[in-house]
Amino acid sequence: VILNNSLTAVDAEKKEAVLASGDRIAADLVLFSVGVRPELGLAKAAGLQIGETGGLLVNEKMETTDPNIYAVGDMAEVTNRITGGRMRIPLGGPANRQGRIAGTNAAGGNMVYKGAIGSSVVKVFAKTCAQTGLSEKAAQAAKMDFGAVTVHPNHHAGYYPGAVPITLKLVYNKPDGRILGCQAWGQEGVEKRADVVATAVLGRMTLDDLEELDLCYAPPYSSANDPVNMAAFVANNQRTGFSPSITAAQFEAMKNNDDVVVVDVREKGEWDAGHLANAINVPLSSLRDNLSLIPHAKTILVHCLSGMRAHVALRCLVQRGYDRVINISGGWKSLLSHK
Predict the structure, then answer these.
(1) Does the predicted model carry a pTM greater than 0.90?
(2) Rounded CA gap, 121 and 118, in Å?
(3) Which of 118, 266, 279, 309 is the most exposed place for a label (fewest CB within 10 A)?
(4) % of residues, the chain, pLDDT over 90
(5) Cβ-proximal residues to 242 (8 Å cutoff; 6+ apart), any chain
(6) By the 8 A CB rule, do 279 and 262 touch?
(7) Phi, psi (5° rounding) for residue 43?
(8) 314 near 331, Cβ under 8 Å?
(9) Dihedral class, residue 42 (left if φ above 0, else alpha if ψ from -120 to 50, else beta)
(10) 333 in helix, strand or coil?
(11) 325-328 and 86-88 beta bridge pairing
(12) pLDDT tens digits for range 168-191
């Protein structure tokens, strides 16, 4: 991390980033993450009101504080349809729909823009990252009572050639199970799942609805239970207490607690390839024969590679009288990603 400095040039020939200090840093790849900020000079000069997020304040007709002036796109501040708060969404989809509404109203029509949820997608080399609605961070900032789970299923049936895993994190409202958003990452089928969740968010659907969502299935395209269904299963298990779980981020806040014991239920070969410090390895295949290794008086955090075996282990331990057992959602894959 270099502080109190800035990038002034990229020397492609020498493969170096040139800093304001004159220093040069060797770089094969330079990623610009500068964000988007509206240019409001003209709007301010016209006396238009600026909103709390730094965008032009508009109403549902996309009118600014001067009813003869409309604003859309990157510079407009609109309503977040989940939280009801104000937000700026510098994305092409919302901008085009806002433009249609503003144009209609300027020509004498009466259309209303209800707000946005921030669905977006980006291609990163051979991978795709997509998101919609609220992330954990956004839900926390909105002071919502939320839950989050992570799953790592294949994008289609594993027995059909070409199956690759995707990572899907689902965020929901704990009191009523309403879907708040998701983030997804992978090589194939990523944006499809984010679009399904976006529809669920706008439809104010719940985890129960998402569990029973009847999505297209054939082995080349999905599994009998789509990754979206799977995420809802895991989230409802968390919400109802049938299989309590925490995210990898929440684990970081708990891992040094003296009351916590981490039990890795992967097989020994998986354990040998990498594991958490201070964890104990009790493979699921021999769990019932080795319960003496797991203390009853502690909080037990279980994990496997991606979550399924840890869920089975959790239910086994609960049936054997353990009353504080928690699954680390997404397992070893999520823990590695969080690092």
Answers:
(1) yes
(2) 10
(3) 279
(4) 96
(5) 236
(6) yes
(7) -65, -40
(8) no
(9) alpha
(10) helix
(11) unpaired
(12) 999 999 999 999 999 999 999 999
